[in-house]
Amino acid sequence: MSNNSVKKLLEERARLLAELGTLSRLLRGSWVERYSVCSRSDCKCRRGERHGPRHYLVVNEGGHQRQKYVQNSRAQAAQEGLAEYRRLQVIVARITCINLALMKEDDYATL
Predict the structure, then answer these.
(1) Which of 40, 83, 103, 107 has the most other CB atoms within 10 Å of its CB?
(2) CB within 8 A of 22, min separation 6: which ones?
(3) Which burial class, exposed, middle or buried, applies to 65 when counting CB atoms under 10 A from its CB (0-12, 13-18, 19+)?
(4) Is the model's pLDDT at 109 over the cut of 70?
(5) 67 close to 58: Cβ distance less than 8 angstroms
(6) What pTM was estimated for this model as a whole?
(7) Measured between alpha carbons, how far is 70 from 65 in angstroms, rounded to an integer?
(8) What are the phi and psi torsion angles at 5 (to 5°)?
(9) Which residues pair with 65 in a beta bridge?
(10) pLDDT band at residue 90, thresholds of 50, 70 and 90?
């Protein structure tokens, strides 16, 4: 691999590592929207117009899945946090590819 190629990979990795610092609101989990039926027999939900959506973030806590209620006013922020987590996964995958390419170089440990 040429020095120019190594330099480009190192620059890309540096940009990606810098971007990691901007992902301060990331949330790891899954998004769930629920519609429900209440117990009132004369409610519109009994005719098919269910209540909701109610928003939940499903997270793993201590090896157990937990559903965390998300207020409607916070739904957009929660979805942005989930998007940041997906971006984190893309960045980690790319950094892994870059590091694997650099490992083929003799001086990888010093990079």
Answers:
(1) 83
(2) none
(3) exposed
(4) no
(5) yes
(6) 0.82
(7) 16
(8) -65, -40
(9) 60
(10) very high
